[in-house]
Design a protein that fits this description.
524 residues, alpha/beta, Protein-Tyrosine Phosphatase, Chain A, UDP-N-acetylmuramoyl-L-alanine:D-glutamate ligase, eight-stranded mixed beta sheet, six-stranded mixed beta sheet, 15 helices, ATP binding, ATP-binding, metal ion binding, Mur_ligase_C_dom_sf, nucleotide-binding
Amino acid sequence: MTDTPRRPGDYDGDDYDAFDDADESDETVDPGALPAVFGAAGDDLSDFPTLGDDDERDRDDRDDDKPLDESSPEDAAAAQRVWEELLARVGEQAPQPRLGATRRAVELLGDPQRSYPVIHITGTNGKTSTSRMIESILRAYGLRTGLMTSPHLVKVNERIVIDGRPISDAALAANWADIQPYLLMVDTELTAAAEQPLTYFEALTVLAFASFADAPVDVVVLEVGMGGEWDSTNVADGQVAVFTPIALDHTKRLGSTVAAIAKTKSGIIKPAAAVVSAKQTPEALAELVRAAELTESTFALEGPRDERGAFEVLKSDVAVGGQVISVRGIAGRYDDLALPLFGRHQAENAAVAIAAVESFLGNGSQPLDPEILSAGLSAATSPGRLQILANDPTILVDAAHNPHGARSLADALGEYFSFDRVVAVLAVLDDKDAAGIIRNLAPAVEHFVVTQSDSERAIDADSLAAVAVGIVGPDRVTVEPNIVSALGIARDLADEAESGGVVVTGSITLVGDVIALTEEDGWK
Protein backbone atom coordinates (compact mmCIF):
# COMPACT_ATOMS: atom_id res chain seq x y z
CA MET A 1 0.00 0.00 0.00
CA THR A 2 1.07 3.51 -0.63
CA ASP A 3 0.42 6.73 1.19
CA THR A 4 0.82 8.77 -1.98
CA PRO A 5 -2.33 9.34 -4.03
CA ARG A 6 -2.00 9.12 -7.76
CA ARG A 7 -4.05 9.55 -10.88
CA PRO A 8 -4.35 6.44 -13.04
CA GLY A 9 -2.33 6.58 -16.21
CA ASP A 10 -3.02 4.93 -19.53
CA TYR A 11 -4.60 1.67 -18.43
CA ASP A 12 -5.25 -1.05 -20.97
CA GLY A 13 -8.94 -1.60 -20.38
CA ASP A 14 -8.83 -4.98 -22.15
CA ASP A 15 -6.95 -6.38 -19.17
CA TYR A 16 -9.98 -5.85 -16.95
CA ASP A 17 -12.88 -7.06 -19.09
CA ALA A 18 -13.45 -9.89 -16.63
CA PHE A 19 -14.91 -7.44 -14.14
CA ASP A 20 -17.75 -6.63 -16.54
CA ASP A 21 -19.24 -10.04 -15.87
CA ALA A 22 -18.41 -10.44 -12.14
CA ASP A 23 -21.20 -11.20 -9.91
CA GLU A 24 -17.09 7.79 18.33
CA SER A 25 -15.55 10.09 16.39
CA ASP A 26 -15.97 13.61 17.74
CA GLU A 27 -17.31 14.51 14.35
CA THR A 28 -20.80 13.17 14.71
CA VAL A 29 -23.65 14.79 12.84
CA ASP A 30 -24.71 18.20 14.05
CA PRO A 31 -28.50 18.28 13.55
CA GLY A 32 -28.31 21.96 12.89
CA ALA A 33 -26.10 21.39 9.88
CA LEU A 34 -28.31 18.82 8.20
CA PRO A 35 -30.89 21.05 6.48
CA ALA A 36 -28.17 22.58 4.32
CA VAL A 37 -27.61 19.31 2.52
CA PHE A 38 -31.27 18.28 2.12
CA GLY A 39 -33.43 19.17 -0.83
CA ALA A 40 -36.45 21.35 -0.22
CA ALA A 41 -39.24 19.48 1.45
CA GLY A 42 -42.05 21.85 0.50
CA ASP A 43 -44.42 21.13 3.37
CA ASP A 44 -44.10 22.24 6.97
CA LEU A 45 -41.99 19.55 8.63
CA SER A 46 -42.14 20.89 12.17
CA ASP A 47 -44.04 17.81 13.31
CA PHE A 48 -41.54 15.39 11.87
CA PRO A 49 -39.89 13.63 14.80
CA THR A 50 -36.15 13.80 15.14
CA LEU A 51 -34.28 10.53 15.42
CA GLY A 52 -35.16 8.87 18.71
CA ASP A 53 -38.43 10.78 19.23
CA ASP A 54 -41.43 8.60 20.02
CA ASP A 55 -45.02 9.09 21.15
CA GLU A 56 -46.10 9.93 24.71
CA ARG A 57 -45.37 6.41 25.92
CA ASP A 58 -42.00 5.75 27.50
CA ARG A 59 -39.96 4.01 24.84
CA ASP A 60 -36.47 4.97 25.93
CA ASP A 61 -35.50 1.32 25.69
CA ARG A 62 -36.33 1.22 21.99
CA ASP A 63 -33.11 2.72 20.69
CA ASP A 64 -31.77 0.35 18.04
CA ASP A 65 -28.42 2.11 18.09
CA LYS A 66 -27.67 1.30 21.72
CA PRO A 67 -24.10 0.05 22.03
CA LEU A 68 -23.33 -3.53 22.89
CA ASP A 69 -23.80 -4.28 26.56
CA GLU A 70 -20.57 -3.52 28.35
CA SER A 71 -18.72 -6.75 28.94
CA SER A 72 -15.93 -7.75 31.26
CA PRO A 73 -12.50 -8.47 29.82
CA GLU A 74 -13.20 -12.15 30.43
CA ASP A 75 -16.47 -12.04 28.46
CA ALA A 76 -14.86 -10.08 25.66
CA ALA A 77 -12.04 -12.62 25.46
CA ALA A 78 -14.54 -15.49 25.41
CA ALA A 79 -16.53 -13.83 22.61
CA GLN A 80 -13.31 -13.30 20.66
CA ARG A 81 -12.60 -17.02 20.93
CA VAL A 82 -16.07 -17.75 19.53
CA TRP A 83 -15.30 -15.47 16.59
CA GLU A 84 -11.97 -17.17 15.98
CA GLU A 85 -13.55 -20.62 16.11
CA LEU A 86 -16.18 -19.53 13.60
CA LEU A 87 -13.49 -18.14 11.32
CA ALA A 88 -11.67 -21.46 11.43
CA ARG A 89 -14.60 -22.99 9.57
CA VAL A 90 -15.26 -22.74 5.84
CA GLY A 91 -16.22 -19.13 5.12
CA GLU A 92 -19.72 -17.94 4.38
CA GLN A 93 -18.72 -16.95 0.85
CA ALA A 94 -18.41 -20.67 0.10
CA PRO A 95 -21.78 -21.94 1.35
CA GLN A 96 -22.63 -25.61 0.99
CA PRO A 97 -25.86 -26.20 -0.99
CA ARG A 98 -27.33 -28.43 1.69
CA LEU A 99 -29.72 -28.38 4.63
CA GLY A 100 -28.98 -31.79 6.14
CA ALA A 101 -25.97 -30.66 8.15
CA THR A 102 -27.77 -27.76 9.83
CA ARG A 103 -30.89 -29.87 10.30
CA ARG A 104 -28.87 -32.55 12.07
CA ALA A 105 -27.29 -29.98 14.42
CA VAL A 106 -30.59 -28.38 15.45
CA GLU A 107 -32.16 -31.82 15.80
CA LEU A 108 -29.52 -32.75 18.37
CA LEU A 109 -30.31 -29.51 20.21
CA GLY A 110 -34.04 -30.25 20.32
CA ASP A 111 -35.00 -28.04 17.34
CA PRO A 112 -34.75 -24.63 19.03
CA GLN A 113 -35.97 -22.97 15.81
CA ARG A 114 -39.42 -24.47 16.47
CA SER A 115 -39.82 -22.73 19.83
CA TYR A 116 -40.92 -19.40 18.27
CA PRO A 117 -42.72 -18.22 15.12
CA VAL A 118 -40.54 -17.00 12.27
CA ILE A 119 -40.78 -14.28 9.62
CA HIS A 120 -38.29 -15.34 6.92
CA ILE A 121 -36.81 -12.79 4.52
CA THR A 122 -34.87 -13.13 1.29
CA GLY A 123 -34.19 -11.03 -1.81
CA THR A 124 -31.21 -9.32 -3.43
CA ASN A 125 -31.34 -5.82 -1.95
CA GLY A 126 -33.10 -4.34 1.06
CA LYS A 127 -33.23 -7.51 3.15
CA THR A 128 -31.48 -6.11 6.21
CA SER A 129 -33.31 -2.76 6.21
CA THR A 130 -36.66 -4.50 5.80
CA SER A 131 -35.80 -7.02 8.52
CA ARG A 132 -34.88 -4.25 10.94
CA MET A 133 -38.11 -2.36 10.24
CA ILE A 134 -40.21 -5.48 10.79
CA GLU A 135 -38.40 -6.16 14.06
CA SER A 136 -38.83 -2.57 15.24
CA ILE A 137 -42.58 -2.61 14.57
CA LEU A 138 -43.03 -5.94 16.33
CA ARG A 139 -41.07 -4.69 19.31
CA ALA A 140 -43.26 -1.59 19.44
CA TYR A 141 -46.16 -3.99 19.88
CA GLY A 142 -44.50 -5.26 23.04
CA LEU A 143 -43.16 -8.51 21.60
CA ARG A 144 -39.73 -9.75 22.62
CA THR A 145 -37.93 -10.14 19.32
CA GLY A 146 -35.03 -12.03 17.87
CA LEU A 147 -33.34 -10.73 14.72
CA MET A 148 -30.70 -12.45 12.62
CA THR A 149 -29.11 -10.48 9.79
CA SER A 150 -25.91 -10.73 7.81
CA PRO A 151 -23.23 -9.74 7.29
CA HIS A 152 -22.08 -7.69 10.26
CA LEU A 153 -20.37 -4.34 9.87
CA VAL A 154 -18.01 -4.27 12.86
CA LYS A 155 -18.66 -7.14 15.29
CA VAL A 156 -20.27 -10.54 14.87
CA ASN A 157 -22.66 -9.84 17.81
CA GLU A 158 -24.57 -7.55 15.43
CA ARG A 159 -25.93 -10.59 13.61
CA ILE A 160 -27.86 -11.91 16.62
CA VAL A 161 -30.10 -9.22 18.09
CA ILE A 162 -32.39 -9.87 21.06
CA ASP A 163 -35.05 -7.34 21.97
CA GLY A 164 -33.30 -4.62 20.00
CA ARG A 165 -29.78 -5.20 21.34
CA PRO A 166 -26.91 -7.15 19.80
CA ILE A 167 -26.27 -10.25 21.87
CA SER A 168 -23.86 -9.61 24.73
CA ASP A 169 -20.39 -11.13 24.77
CA ALA A 170 -21.36 -13.21 27.80
CA ALA A 171 -24.50 -14.64 26.17
CA LEU A 172 -22.67 -15.24 22.88
CA ALA A 173 -19.94 -17.22 24.62
CA ALA A 174 -22.33 -19.12 26.91
CA ASN A 175 -24.60 -20.21 24.06
CA TRP A 176 -21.59 -21.20 21.99
CA ALA A 177 -20.29 -23.34 24.85
CA ASP A 178 -23.72 -25.02 25.06
CA ILE A 179 -23.90 -25.93 21.37
CA GLN A 180 -20.25 -26.62 20.59
CA PRO A 181 -20.27 -30.32 21.64
CA TYR A 182 -23.19 -30.94 19.29
CA LEU A 183 -21.50 -29.06 16.46
CA LEU A 184 -18.43 -31.24 16.92
CA MET A 185 -20.61 -34.36 16.83
CA VAL A 186 -22.06 -33.26 13.50
CA ASP A 187 -18.59 -32.38 12.20
CA THR A 188 -17.46 -35.92 13.02
CA GLU A 189 -20.47 -37.45 11.26
CA LEU A 190 -19.96 -35.28 8.18
CA THR A 191 -16.25 -36.05 7.98
CA ALA A 192 -16.97 -39.77 8.25
CA ALA A 193 -19.34 -39.39 5.31
CA ALA A 194 -16.64 -37.55 3.31
CA GLU A 195 -18.52 -34.27 3.59
CA GLN A 196 -17.38 -30.80 4.62
CA PRO A 197 -17.78 -30.06 8.36
CA LEU A 198 -20.29 -27.41 9.36
CA THR A 199 -19.41 -24.09 7.73
CA TYR A 200 -19.09 -20.68 9.37
CA PHE A 201 -22.64 -19.71 8.43
CA GLU A 202 -24.17 -23.06 9.31
CA ALA A 203 -22.61 -22.93 12.78
CA LEU A 204 -23.62 -19.28 13.20
CA THR A 205 -27.21 -20.09 12.24
CA VAL A 206 -27.37 -22.84 14.85
CA LEU A 207 -25.92 -20.42 17.41
CA ALA A 208 -28.60 -17.84 16.57
CA PHE A 209 -31.43 -20.35 16.87
CA ALA A 210 -30.12 -21.55 20.24
CA SER A 211 -29.59 -17.99 21.50
CA PHE A 212 -33.14 -16.98 20.60
CA ALA A 213 -34.56 -20.04 22.37
CA ASP A 214 -32.41 -19.33 25.44
CA ALA A 215 -33.45 -15.64 25.63
CA PRO A 216 -36.37 -16.50 25.07
CA VAL A 217 -38.16 -14.53 22.34
CA ASP A 218 -41.74 -14.25 21.08
CA VAL A 219 -40.89 -14.03 17.38
CA VAL A 220 -37.80 -14.22 15.18
CA VAL A 221 -37.15 -12.12 12.09
CA LEU A 222 -34.76 -14.25 10.06
CA GLU A 223 -32.73 -12.97 7.12
CA VAL A 224 -31.43 -15.49 4.62
CA GLY A 225 -27.66 -15.58 4.19
CA MET A 226 -27.60 -16.44 0.49
CA GLY A 227 -30.33 -17.70 -1.80
CA GLY A 228 -33.04 -19.44 0.16
CA GLU A 229 -33.80 -23.04 -0.74
CA TRP A 230 -30.56 -24.49 0.61
CA ASP A 231 -29.57 -21.63 2.92
CA SER A 232 -29.03 -22.94 6.44
CA THR A 233 -31.71 -20.60 7.83
CA ASN A 234 -34.25 -22.61 5.84
CA VAL A 235 -34.41 -25.36 8.45
CA ALA A 236 -36.82 -22.94 10.13
CA ASP A 237 -40.38 -22.74 8.87
CA GLY A 238 -41.50 -19.18 8.32
CA GLN A 239 -45.15 -18.40 8.88
CA VAL A 240 -44.50 -15.35 6.71
CA ALA A 241 -42.12 -15.43 3.73
CA VAL A 242 -40.93 -11.98 2.64
CA PHE A 243 -39.23 -11.11 -0.65
CA THR A 244 -37.42 -7.85 -1.29
CA PRO A 245 -36.49 -7.00 -4.91
CA ILE A 246 -34.68 -9.84 -6.71
CA ALA A 247 -31.89 -9.05 -9.17
CA LEU A 248 -28.60 -10.52 -10.37
CA ASP A 249 -26.08 -11.14 -7.58
CA HIS A 250 -24.01 -14.14 -6.45
CA THR A 251 -24.53 -15.53 -9.95
CA LYS A 252 -21.87 -18.22 -9.55
CA ARG A 253 -23.85 -19.68 -6.65
CA LEU A 254 -27.46 -18.87 -7.42
CA GLY A 255 -27.68 -18.89 -11.22
CA SER A 256 -27.04 -16.58 -14.12
CA THR A 257 -30.62 -15.37 -14.65
CA VAL A 258 -33.11 -13.55 -12.45
CA ALA A 259 -35.55 -16.43 -12.91
CA ALA A 260 -33.02 -18.98 -11.64
CA ILE A 261 -32.16 -16.81 -8.64
CA ALA A 262 -35.84 -16.25 -7.86
CA LYS A 263 -36.51 -19.98 -8.05
CA THR A 264 -33.80 -20.64 -5.48
CA LYS A 265 -35.06 -17.86 -3.22
CA SER A 266 -38.66 -19.09 -3.48
CA GLY A 267 -37.58 -22.17 -1.53
CA ILE A 268 -38.28 -20.36 1.75
CA ILE A 269 -42.03 -20.52 1.07
CA LYS A 270 -43.46 -23.23 3.31
CA PRO A 271 -46.93 -24.84 3.10
CA ALA A 272 -49.80 -22.44 3.85
CA ALA A 273 -47.45 -19.52 4.49
CA ALA A 274 -48.29 -15.87 3.96
CA VAL A 275 -46.08 -14.55 1.15
CA VAL A 276 -45.31 -10.82 0.94
CA SER A 277 -43.30 -9.52 -1.99
CA ALA A 278 -41.89 -6.22 -3.16
CA LYS A 279 -42.33 -5.31 -6.82
CA GLN A 280 -40.51 -7.84 -8.99
CA THR A 281 -39.52 -8.30 -12.61
CA PRO A 282 -41.93 -10.54 -14.54
CA GLU A 283 -39.52 -13.48 -14.54
CA ALA A 284 -38.92 -13.28 -10.78
CA LEU A 285 -42.62 -12.80 -10.05
CA ALA A 286 -43.53 -15.89 -12.07
CA GLU A 287 -41.28 -18.07 -9.91
CA LEU A 288 -42.64 -16.66 -6.66
CA VAL A 289 -46.26 -17.07 -7.73
CA ARG A 290 -45.57 -20.65 -8.84
CA ALA A 291 -44.02 -21.52 -5.48
CA ALA A 292 -46.91 -19.88 -3.59
CA GLU A 293 -49.44 -21.87 -5.60
CA LEU A 294 -47.60 -25.15 -5.06
CA THR A 295 -47.54 -24.59 -1.30
CA GLU A 296 -51.12 -23.26 -1.13
CA SER A 297 -49.81 -20.01 0.32
CA THR A 298 -51.39 -16.58 0.14
CA PHE A 299 -49.59 -13.99 -1.98
CA ALA A 300 -49.51 -10.22 -1.43
CA LEU A 301 -47.61 -8.18 -4.02
CA GLU A 302 -46.56 -4.55 -3.82
CA GLY A 303 -48.26 -2.43 -6.45
CA PRO A 304 -51.23 -0.18 -7.29
CA ARG A 305 -54.80 -1.45 -6.94
CA ASP A 306 -55.39 -1.29 -10.69
CA GLU A 307 -52.48 -3.70 -11.14
CA ARG A 308 -53.88 -6.03 -8.46
CA GLY A 309 -51.31 -4.86 -5.96
CA ALA A 310 -52.08 -5.63 -2.32
CA PHE A 311 -50.10 -2.74 -0.82
CA GLU A 312 -48.06 0.26 -1.96
CA VAL A 313 -46.31 3.49 -1.05
CA LEU A 314 -48.81 6.29 -1.64
CA LYS A 315 -46.52 9.19 -0.80
CA SER A 316 -42.92 9.83 0.16
CA ASP A 317 -41.82 13.35 1.07
CA VAL A 318 -38.27 14.38 1.89
CA ALA A 319 -37.96 15.50 5.51
CA VAL A 320 -35.28 16.45 7.99
CA GLY A 321 -33.68 13.20 9.12
CA GLY A 322 -35.37 11.03 6.50
CA GLN A 323 -38.84 11.12 5.00
CA VAL A 324 -42.56 11.12 5.71
CA ILE A 325 -44.48 8.32 4.01
CA SER A 326 -48.06 7.21 3.53
CA VAL A 327 -48.72 3.56 2.84
CA ARG A 328 -51.71 1.52 1.73
CA GLY A 329 -51.24 -1.73 3.56
CA ILE A 330 -52.95 -5.06 3.08
CA ALA A 331 -55.50 -4.30 5.79
CA GLY A 332 -55.40 -0.53 6.30
CA ARG A 333 -54.07 2.84 5.24
CA TYR A 334 -51.38 4.58 7.26
CA ASP A 335 -50.68 8.26 6.67
CA ASP A 336 -47.78 10.56 7.52
CA LEU A 337 -45.45 8.03 9.07
CA ALA A 338 -42.00 9.29 10.03
CA LEU A 339 -39.27 7.10 8.56
CA PRO A 340 -35.75 8.12 9.64
CA LEU A 341 -34.10 6.54 6.59
CA PHE A 342 -33.19 8.09 3.25
CA GLY A 343 -34.23 6.93 -0.22
CA ARG A 344 -37.41 5.99 -2.05
CA HIS A 345 -36.24 2.38 -1.83
CA GLN A 346 -36.45 2.63 1.97
CA ALA A 347 -40.05 3.83 1.68
CA GLU A 348 -40.78 0.74 -0.38
CA ASN A 349 -38.93 -1.44 2.12
CA ALA A 350 -41.15 0.08 4.83
CA ALA A 351 -44.28 -0.81 2.85
CA VAL A 352 -43.07 -4.41 2.59
CA ALA A 353 -42.32 -4.43 6.33
CA ILE A 354 -45.79 -3.12 7.16
CA ALA A 355 -47.42 -5.76 4.96
CA ALA A 356 -45.31 -8.47 6.59
CA VAL A 357 -46.35 -7.39 10.09
CA GLU A 358 -50.00 -7.19 9.02
CA SER A 359 -49.69 -10.74 7.69
CA PHE A 360 -48.07 -11.97 10.90
CA LEU A 361 -50.25 -10.26 13.51
CA GLY A 362 -53.66 -10.41 11.85
CA ASN A 363 -53.36 -12.69 8.82
CA GLY A 364 -53.57 -9.58 6.65
CA SER A 365 -57.13 -8.84 7.78
CA GLN A 366 -56.65 -6.44 10.70
CA PRO A 367 -55.14 -2.94 10.37
CA LEU A 368 -52.16 -2.13 12.56
CA ASP A 369 -52.53 0.35 15.40
CA PRO A 370 -51.39 3.68 13.84
CA GLU A 371 -49.66 4.92 17.00
CA ILE A 372 -47.75 1.69 17.55
CA LEU A 373 -46.79 1.50 13.87
CA SER A 374 -45.59 5.10 13.96
CA ALA A 375 -43.50 4.41 17.05
CA GLY A 376 -41.97 1.31 15.49
CA LEU A 377 -41.05 2.91 12.19
CA SER A 378 -39.72 6.11 13.75
CA ALA A 379 -37.34 4.01 15.88
CA ALA A 380 -36.07 1.94 12.96
CA THR A 381 -32.44 2.17 11.99
CA SER A 382 -30.35 0.57 9.27
CA PRO A 383 -26.64 1.04 9.96
CA GLY A 384 -24.51 1.23 6.85
CA ARG A 385 -27.43 2.19 4.63
CA LEU A 386 -27.23 5.88 3.66
CA GLN A 387 -25.96 6.46 7.17
CA ILE A 388 -24.48 9.89 7.95
CA LEU A 389 -21.23 9.60 9.88
CA ALA A 390 -20.01 13.19 9.84
CA ASN A 391 -20.64 16.64 8.43
CA ASP A 392 -18.62 19.54 7.06
CA PRO A 393 -18.45 17.94 4.59
CA THR A 394 -21.28 15.46 4.96
CA ILE A 395 -19.97 11.90 4.86
CA LEU A 396 -22.34 9.00 4.18
CA VAL A 397 -21.75 5.28 4.09
CA ASP A 398 -23.94 2.99 2.03
CA ALA A 399 -23.56 -0.75 1.62
CA ALA A 400 -24.65 -0.86 -2.03
CA HIS A 401 -22.58 -3.68 -3.53
CA ASN A 402 -24.34 -4.57 -6.78
CA PRO A 403 -25.76 -2.56 -9.70
CA HIS A 404 -29.33 -2.58 -8.38
CA GLY A 405 -28.20 -1.18 -5.02
CA ALA A 406 -25.96 1.38 -6.72
CA ARG A 407 -28.89 2.64 -8.79
CA SER A 408 -31.00 3.10 -5.65
CA LEU A 409 -28.12 4.95 -3.99
CA ALA A 410 -27.64 7.27 -6.96
CA ASP A 411 -31.37 8.06 -7.04
CA ALA A 412 -31.40 8.80 -3.31
CA LEU A 413 -28.39 11.12 -3.52
CA GLY A 414 -30.22 13.21 -6.09
CA GLU A 415 -33.59 13.22 -4.37
CA TYR A 416 -32.73 13.51 -0.68
CA PHE A 417 -29.62 15.68 -0.71
CA SER A 418 -28.68 18.95 -2.41
CA PHE A 419 -24.97 18.32 -2.88
CA ASP A 420 -23.35 20.28 -5.68
CA ARG A 421 -20.52 17.73 -5.77
CA VAL A 422 -20.50 14.09 -4.72
CA VAL A 423 -17.21 12.26 -4.23
CA ALA A 424 -17.38 8.49 -3.88
CA VAL A 425 -14.86 6.42 -1.95
CA LEU A 426 -15.22 3.08 -3.72
CA ALA A 427 -14.09 -0.48 -3.07
CA VAL A 428 -15.60 -3.64 -4.54
CA LEU A 429 -15.13 -7.36 -3.89
CA ASP A 430 -13.94 -9.64 -6.67
CA ASP A 431 -17.22 -11.55 -7.08
CA LYS A 432 -19.25 -8.40 -7.73
CA ASP A 433 -20.14 -6.54 -10.92
CA ALA A 434 -17.76 -3.62 -10.45
CA ALA A 435 -18.48 -2.13 -13.86
CA GLY A 436 -22.24 -2.25 -13.27
CA ILE A 437 -21.85 -0.55 -9.90
CA ILE A 438 -19.71 2.25 -11.35
CA ARG A 439 -22.01 2.79 -14.33
CA ASN A 440 -25.03 3.22 -12.08
CA LEU A 441 -23.19 5.55 -9.67
CA ALA A 442 -21.61 7.67 -12.42
CA PRO A 443 -24.58 10.01 -13.05
CA ALA A 444 -24.61 11.05 -9.38
CA VAL A 445 -20.87 11.00 -8.62
CA GLU A 446 -18.48 13.64 -9.90
CA HIS A 447 -15.28 11.94 -8.75
CA PHE A 448 -14.28 8.43 -7.64
CA VAL A 449 -11.53 7.84 -5.08
CA VAL A 450 -10.79 4.15 -5.60
CA THR A 451 -9.47 2.16 -2.66
CA GLN A 452 -9.72 -1.37 -1.27
CA SER A 453 -11.08 -2.84 1.94
CA ASP A 454 -9.29 -5.21 4.29
CA SER A 455 -11.10 -8.19 2.80
CA GLU A 456 -8.97 -10.79 1.07
CA ARG A 457 -11.53 -10.71 -1.73
CA ALA A 458 -11.23 -6.97 -2.36
CA ILE A 459 -10.34 -6.02 -5.92
CA ASP A 460 -6.90 -4.45 -6.03
CA ALA A 461 -7.27 -0.65 -6.10
CA ASP A 462 -5.30 -0.28 -9.35
CA SER A 463 -7.40 -2.94 -11.08
CA LEU A 464 -10.65 -1.39 -9.90
CA ALA A 465 -9.43 2.04 -10.99
CA ALA A 466 -8.85 0.66 -14.48
CA VAL A 467 -12.49 -0.37 -14.64
CA ALA A 468 -13.58 3.07 -13.45
CA VAL A 469 -11.34 4.86 -15.96
CA GLY A 470 -12.84 2.80 -18.77
CA ILE A 471 -16.28 4.07 -17.80
CA VAL A 472 -15.86 7.66 -16.55
CA GLY A 473 -12.38 8.60 -17.80
CA PRO A 474 -9.11 9.30 -15.94
CA ASP A 475 -10.04 12.85 -14.89
CA ARG A 476 -12.75 11.54 -12.60
CA VAL A 477 -10.67 8.86 -10.87
CA THR A 478 -8.03 8.96 -8.14
CA VAL A 479 -6.34 5.83 -6.75
CA GLU A 480 -5.50 5.47 -3.06
CA PRO A 481 -5.32 1.96 -1.58
CA ASN A 482 -5.10 3.22 2.01
CA ILE A 483 -8.63 3.80 3.31
CA VAL A 484 -7.76 6.61 5.72
CA SER A 485 -5.86 8.46 3.01
CA ALA A 486 -8.66 7.86 0.53
CA LEU A 487 -11.15 9.40 2.94
CA GLY A 488 -8.89 12.40 3.37
CA ILE A 489 -8.64 12.92 -0.39
CA ALA A 490 -12.39 12.61 -0.81
CA ARG A 491 -13.07 15.13 1.95
CA ASP A 492 -10.65 17.61 0.43
CA LEU A 493 -12.32 17.25 -2.98
CA ALA A 494 -15.77 17.68 -1.46
CA ASP A 495 -14.61 20.73 0.52
CA GLU A 496 -13.70 22.46 -2.73
CA ALA A 497 -17.42 22.74 -3.51
CA GLU A 498 -19.90 24.96 -1.69
CA SER A 499 -21.99 21.96 -0.63
CA GLY A 500 -19.96 18.84 -1.31
CA GLY A 501 -20.58 15.40 0.06
CA VAL A 502 -18.70 12.11 0.36
CA VAL A 503 -20.28 8.68 0.00
CA VAL A 504 -18.39 5.52 0.95
CA THR A 505 -19.82 2.57 -0.96
CA GLY A 506 -19.34 -0.49 -3.16
CA SER A 507 -18.58 -3.03 -0.46
CA ILE A 508 -20.08 -3.96 2.89
CA THR A 509 -16.57 -4.68 4.17
CA LEU A 510 -15.45 -1.16 3.19
CA VAL A 511 -18.44 0.35 5.01
CA GLY A 512 -17.63 -1.77 8.06
CA ASP A 513 -13.97 -0.71 7.95
CA VAL A 514 -14.93 2.98 7.80
CA ILE A 515 -17.48 2.72 10.62
CA ALA A 516 -14.86 0.95 12.75
CA LEU A 517 -12.35 3.73 11.99
CA THR A 518 -14.78 6.41 13.13
CA GLU A 519 -15.54 4.51 16.32
CA GLU A 520 -11.97 3.64 17.21
CA ASP A 521 -9.80 6.52 16.01
CA GLY A 522 -12.00 9.17 14.49
CA TRP A 523 -10.97 11.36 11.59
CA LYS A 524 -11.53 14.99 10.78
